[in-house]
Design goal:
mainly alpha, two-stranded antiparallel sheet, 19 helices, Cat_transpt, transmembrane helix, TrkH, ion transport
Length: 448
């Protein structure tokens, strides 16, 4: 089928990905607008259905209506399906189906998988898909079992099992949708070590990237990991630790957040907020009650996001650390950017700069536009919302349900851009350029 699309429409891999995600969102919008999808049997308006379908497919978690009380069992299953397909990518499921019926994966399909997983080469990408699927099933299954056992102390066993499955899938895919109602997310479990640590683990495992997971299963030794995996792991855990320390420090005496909690509760809540800011969207503290300094810290973490080839968004950890490495090399007067005794090729640095700049421009433009359409809202709240949408995080200070019609459309578009990646969309929208057979003479101008 994909080969037929290539032949008839001559679509490049980035365009196929954009079209695929758009079709899934439209199908989800149609299903969520049906009367059977809501508890009052009136269905959602097309705009709210579109927003919810986009948020679920782009594994964001921003919601304009409460998931737990608005949607029926059918509607919640639709959302959960969109989360799973959006998290792993529709190409993963298409490839698995092709393998089940015994069809070989063509080179063009491998190139599309390469684009979807953001890997360097199409070699071994089919084996990566099998690893991704198996790892996902096992991780989500274990998470569902642990959460179901914990929830069984608070609710009937059948409800606990359903809640365990839903929240395991939602958080592994870094979506952040929840069923607890009243937009409260996981605030009722702020000091619960089981819920906090299990969901934090699911978020981290979904956010480090399947390339790293495959590397770990293949080698099981950090010294044998690829440069990519080493950088991702070190950057991820450094950001989590630093985020935890700063939130703990900034919110320690805040009586609306960490203040009333025990010391262990403060640590758990700080850890969870640091982890979830990396594109997950669940929260155990009321985001609107955090101090401005903590809010700004979370904005930075959301913009950085998860890692390449994962279920998360943002500019990605490798992009962030590449920028730091390039700046450090310039300060030290060195020619190369080096990590773990390996130097980065210039194209990697250029790509990191491009992704960061496009992402920054997107967030700024969305923030500026929302500051006009949502003129009564505090600027920091708008910046937080725009960054959350771009990073496909899903954290909100309460603005999402009150967005104007244009604001909802703009945030939905931002989530779409954030999920696919700004560079992928930019490449898809530009014409293929011919190879240059000449180069202009060198020129110089002052920087800084």
């Amino acid at each position: 089928m994909i080969n037929q699309i290539y032949r008839n429409l001559k679509l490049t891999p980035p365009k196929i990905l954009i079209l695929g995600f758009a079709v899934i969102i439209l199908i989800g919008t149609l299903l969520l607008s049906l009367s059977v999808s809501t508890t009052d049997h009136r269905g959602l308006s097309w705009l709210n259905a579109l927003f919810t379908a986009t948020s679920a497919t782009c594994v964001t978690g921003l919601v304009v209506v409460d998931t737990g009380t608005t949607f029926s069992f059918f509607g919640q299953i639709v959302i959960l399906s969109l989360i799973q397909i959006g998290g792993l990518g529709f190409m993963t499921f298409a490839t698995l189906f092709a393998l089940l019926i015994g069809r070989k994966i063509s080179l063009k399909e491998r190139l599309l998988l390469q684009e979807a997983f953001n890997v360097v080469s199409p070699q071994g990408v089919v084996r990566l898909v099998k690893t991704v699927f198996l790892f996902t099933v096992l991780t989500e299954g274990l998470g569902a079992i642990l959460l179901s056992i914990r929830f069984s102390f608070d609710m009937p066993i059948s409800t606990a099992i359903y809640y365990g499955i839903f929240h395991s899938i939602s958080n592994f895919n870094n979506a952040g949708f929840d069923l607890f109602g009243e937009f409260r997310s996981l605030t009722g479990y702020v000091e619960d070590p089981v819920v906090t640590l299990v969901i934090s683990s699911l978020i981290i495992l979904g956010g480090i990237g399947f390339i790293v997971v495959h590397d770990f299963l293949e080698h099981k030794s950090f010294q044998k990991f690829s440069l990519h995996s080493k950088v991702v792991l070190c950057t991820t855990f450094s950001l989590i630790i630093l985020g935890t320390i700063f939130i703990f420090w900034l919110e320690f005496y805040n009586q609306k957040t960490l203040g009333p909690l025990s010391f262990s509760g403060k640590v758990l809540a700080s850890l969870f907020q640091s982890v979830t800011a990396r594109t997950a969207g669940a929260n155990t503290l009321s985001i609107g009650d955090l101090s401005d300094s903590s809010i700004f810290l979370i904005i930075i973490l959301m913009f950085i996001g998860a890692s390449p080839g994962s279920t998360g968004g943002g500019i990605k950890t490798t992009t962030f650390v590449t920028l730091l490495g390039a700046a450090w090399s310039q300060v030290k007067g060195k020619q190369d950017v080096v990590f773990f005794r390996q130097r980065l090729v210039p194209t990697t640095i250029y790509k990191a700069i491009t992704v960061s700049l496009i992402g920054f421009i997107v967030v700024i433009l969305v923030t500026m536009t929302l500051s006009i359409t949502e003129a009564e809202t505090n600027f920091l709240v708008i910046l937080f919302e725009a960054t959350s949408a771009f990073g496909t995080v899903g954290l909100s200070m309460g603005l999402t349900p009150d967005l104007s019609t244009f604001g909802k459309i703009l945030i939905a578009l931002t989530m779409f851009i954030g999920r696919l990646g700004p560079l992928t969309i930019a490449i898809a929208l530009t014409h293929k350029q011919d190879k240059e057979f000449y180069r202009y003479p060198k020129g110089r101008f002052m920087i800084g």
